[in-house]
Amino acid sequence: MAVKQQDLLRDMQNCFNHLKVEENKTETVSERHRNESINIGCTEFPDYSEEVRSVLKAGWLEKTPPNSGVIYQRRWVQLDSEYLRYFQSPKEVYSKRMISLRCVDKVVGVGDLKFELHSQNRTFLFRADKTEEINDWVCCLEKALSDNRNSIESRNLFFKRGSVDFSFEGYLELMSPRIKVYTIISRDKLYLFKNREEHFQGVGVTDIDMRMARVKDGGKRSFTLTTPYRTFSFLAESESEKQRWCDSLNECVSRSLSCDGVCESLWRVVSNQQCADCSALMPEWASINLCVLLCEKCAGVHRSLGQNVSKVRSLKLDERVWTDDLIRVFLQLGNAKANTFWGANIPPSESLCVNANDEHRLQHITAKYVHGKYRKYHTLYGQQEALDSALCKAVQSSDLLEILTLLHCGADIKCHTGIPDFPTPLSLAKRSGQSAQAELLTQNLNTESFESVLKDVSIQSRRGYLFKPASSSRPITEHKNKADFARRWSCLEGGVFSYYKNDHSKKCGGMKTSDIICLSVNSPGKHVYEHTFELYTEEGRGYLFGADDANTVRNWSKAISMAMLPTALFDICGPCDRLGRLRCVEGSHGIGWFCLSGFKLHVLLENTVQTIDLRKLLSLSHSDSDGSMVLVWRGGTLHVLTDRRPHFVGWQTCIQQKSGAGDQPLSHQQLTELDVPVTIDRCLDHVTRYGLLSPGIYRKNGVNSHTTKLLERFHNDARSVSWSESDFSVDDVANTLKRFLREVKDGVLNGQDNAKSWLKAADLEDKTERIYYYQNLLSNLPIVNRATLKALTHHLLSVQHLSNENQMTKRNLGIVFGPTLFQTDGTDVKEPRVVEELIQNYCSIFNVSESELLRQLNLTTAALNKHKSERPSSKTTSSIICAVDLERIEEGSEVLVQVGANMTAVELVSEVLDHKGVKPANEDFWSCYEILEKEEMDRMLHYHEKVSPVYFSPGLQCHLLVKKNHYISNILKYLEMMEENVCKSGTLRVCEVKSERSKNYCSRYCELSGTTFRMHKELQNSPCEREWPVKELKVYNGYRSKLHSPTPWGITLAHDKQQWYLCCDNEDEFIEWTATFFSIQYDGDIWPSPLVMQSHNS
Ligand SMILES: [Zn+2]
């Protein structure tokens, strides 16, 4: 078939070449003199132009020549999506003029039945004989212009305001009419311009489709271009110039034709001979990221979905896209294979036929690719880590369908492979020499991920048998026997869920889906029926349904959740374990929709969906008095109100369970932002602070009962554990870490089988090979295990670095941590070796830059040496080395200071200045600031304030910075002026930040007096909305960086992980409020007396 088509085309061309083409010379010449336009007449060839150029509007108009502007000329004017062209007559193929819409700024009706087209450099005036006609033109042009501006990618790159995509250009002389033209070969067309300037202005004469053209050398600098409609004769400046033109034109012709080669090769796969969507024959288009060949109509729909969904390219016109690798992808996959994924479940009633109307086509294609309604889910769907690691494996194989499936079932194309030199799946594919895979990945780099399933009415209905316990007073959560269940015909339809004795009998019961407030899919085995789900209604009743197989329960719960949930949430969360609505303090309606899926809690409040990883909560508290729940995470707070109905207890239990449990494997534990279990993080932190210099750290065991006690506390609720230095010795804590690692389910190495692979790797003789295997094993670990191993190794490296002090060499650490990591009794000598090698090759195995590591280690060493020279006698100390920045935070401005537990801010300031040799001038006020890393906020430490609790405040990435304080003198002056009576009130714009997205400022009347800060909704006398004791607030200068604040004068109040932003109108306001806060917080004692300063500076 393909061959036939091509032959047909060739025959046609030969035929055209022999046609004798006449030119209308007389008219051309007169035209040229009259209005300096070029007329390219040709034999009449009806319908050509309209067919090829999908014309938006065409008609007769009169136009003035650009310069003289007196005599109107009647022209056939044609508008398509890219150009406005005008012709001598409707039968012409080659225009007299073509104006690129890209270069048209606006179109204006100018009265007198006229309109003008304005481009940057010129104006074109047209006249019609009817007002309606003018209005219609203006309207069509305006729409075309706006469409053109909005189109992401112009199909014709040619007229992009001078930026041209062409292969050859230059001046030629056109023989008849005899005139010089500026000529450009671009893609498959030859464009003619009057001159180079006009090309940049976007005004051309005409374009010639080279696919239909033939080039012929005419001798003596001349050559001809024969098209079916006309022959153009050109004269080049020289013989050699002519040769170059002929070569380029011939190349252009053959390139345009060889595009047929792409079709030909792709159509060799039989299923590629039909459109993947509607089965139309010989599809000439393709979506190069979704890997399907398409007919023109379907391609149009795909294009309308946007580049980020479907990247549509022509097999014929976009020749450059079709690299050998891309062709290979399409040959290997083919429409049939691709459709085993995309179209695995198309019901006959929803299939698409060739003659489908536009609406149906759009509906089908959107469902198929945007919502993924018919696709075959990957077996790992919903398990992110497993999907990602499957992707990393697949890219090294030749299975393209697996990659396509993974990419469109949620695998992260940018996931980390765990291999330092080939960190992305793309780099891994390239390394494995899988160039087709690499091409497929490349085409999908910017594809939007397909997470949503269509919320479709047809899926919201379902029928079938379920088992239901007879209504009884026993709560449904209690264990049931088989005898308790009865078979019920169940039906979900039109927003009602009902059940019957059998499919003919009278209804036994049911509920509206809008009355269902909670759906819970039970874990298997809770009742005698292996698979069950529960429904809870608004009125407080609970229902239990069971089935023998998981699929039935999954399908029912999917249908019911679809009927229950708002689309916004359903599209995001997909299948989940528990969902429903709960009452919240936040949000104006006080109702939030919740979906629990694994450890992720998706919450829809006020049209915004937030996803919370419950393991990473900063705190989860239940109020004893009313049972309400407060969830605090980085980025927000959520206050769920208690509910007496039975579904609420279930929510409490589930959220509690999913927020991390001490008796579970590492990835089920409470986690830090960096995916390290909180228990491990706290222990490492403690030993780093107090134990690096302690001889025999990790070797000594501490007091056993202390370790057991601490471990138990971590086990119960790790994030709530805190202790002071005196409660536990560093050895107690070190031993707690070891015991945790030794006892945690599956260990850091994720089970004995995996642990054995590490030992096998240690056996390899070649070091490079060994490292490579370690990298590979590391990349196969779950994210949490990987992060834990990295944090642990980094820590051991710092211990080892100070082995002169603590005697813990690499070897000693290996002996201690080998059996700990492998969870054995320590008989295998390879275990310590693995630990040693991890420490030794930390940078290459964990992909850490050597210079960064070196810098960190040097800081520690330098600090240590300084400390030794100053106090040679004392070896053990409770002080810690802190890096404090001077004047600004950047590399090199750090000063290392030994910070004792009782060091105050004023002492720190003088130490830092002293260290850097800075002599403070009298008028300088130097202060120590707490800088919150990610947020552009700082807080001046009170001079009496102890430094170490600030530096080590848990959960905050905080820097200490010593810099001049620019406000303090004004603050002191203001307070002096206020004398005893320090208070302040007034209206401020206030923003309470609940999440990253909420940034609404409202005016509040604020009052600061006595020891309290109050906020009133309106006036002073209106009831107080909120109040805080000022001494419990942390007062920061500035705003969280993501917040768009109305003025730069901001104050941030932090209280118990919640934050409020106060926005002052000007600097004076800011100073007055800040001064008042300080004065109340520190009882008027804000700045040290000169005496104190002197004693510290001397
Ligand atoms: Zn089609």
Strand arrangement, major sheet:
34-33-37-35-36-42-43-44-38-39-40-41
Shape: globular
Flag low-confidence runs.
1-52, 152-165, 450-458, 867-878, 1091-1095
Task: Name the beta content range.
Answer: 15-25%
Give the rounded overall mean pLDDT.
80
The largest β sheet comes out as:
12 strands, mixed
Distance N to C terminus = 96 Å
Structural class based on helices, strands and sheet pairing: alpha+beta
Radius of gyration: 38 Å
Number of strands: 44
Total number of helices: 32
Query: What percentage of residues falls in helices of 4 or more residues?
Result: 25-40%
Q: Which molecules are bound besides the chains?
A: zinc ion
Description:
With 1098 residues, the protein is α+β, with helices and mostly antiparallel strands. The chain is 35% helix and 23% strand. The strands form seven sheets. A twelve-stranded mixed beta sheet has the order 34-33-37-35-36-42-43-44-38-39-40-41. Strands 5-6-7-1-2-3-4-11 form an eight-stranded antiparallel beta sheet. It has a seven-stranded antiparallel beta sheet with strand order 12-10-9-8-15-14-13. A hairpin with a 2-residue loop joins strand 27 (591-597) and strand 28. Helix 12 (425-431) packs antiparallel against helix 13 and helix 24 (810-822) crosses helix 25 (830-840). Bound molecules: zinc ion. Residues 275, 277-278, 280, 294-295, 297-298 line the site of zinc ion. Zinc ion is lined by residues 275, 277-278, 280, 294-295, 297-298.
